[in-house]
Amino acid sequence: xxxxxxxxxxxxxxxxxxxxxxxxxxxxxxxxxxxxxxxxxxxxxxxxxxxxxxxxxxxxxxxxxxxxxxxxx
Length: 73
Hints:
The chain is an all-alpha fold. Helix content is about 65%, strand content about 0%. The model has no long low-confidence stretch (mean pLDDT about 85).
């Protein structure tokens, strides 16, 4: 089994699929149907936002935490 040949064949197939997808999207756009978002796209990464009440709760917890940590011995 020639791994390099298999990889090359897969790249060729990938290019063909990309062209087909692009032409189908163009047909869909021309028909005025719009394109749904791609799966996995549009999701936001990172931290979620906190309400002011949640932020205050965290602040109080951390103040207690650091007060205990600062105590000697």
